[in-house]
Amino acid sequence: MSFDEAEVGELLHQRGWRKVFSVTEMAGAWDQLVTTVEHGYEDTVEEYSNDLYCRNWLHLAWPLLNEHTVLIWTARIKELDGRFVAAPVDDDGHALGQFHRIPDPAMWWWRRHPRVLAGDLGRSLRGAGATGINHP
Predict the structure, then answer these.
(1) 85 pLDDT band (50/70/90 cuts)?
(2) How far apart are CA 11 and CA 3, in angstroms?
């Protein structure tokens, strides 16, 4: 069974998401996070973990969405995923896992940390053994 975007937002809200999100909203949040990670994410490890949840929402929504919505958004999400794969370091979740439980293995974005170790996040991840480029 597949649902339109509004129905999926409502269904995920009923499953515990804090509000009814849309694909547009969560794809925009993913885009913003990817761009920030490319330039050096400076906020806290808690904020970074929280920001990653936008990709979780997309992951959970995808199998529920109707074919039309998936067709419209797939290329954009794949492009953002590709940029995210290129921007961080894959450490199988070692550094981030010291601060947050790493979810389902299919959620690969949790197993990566920014290559540019900047601000509070950079300090926390370096302290957890992360390697990358130190931001000036």
Answers:
(1) very high
(2) 9
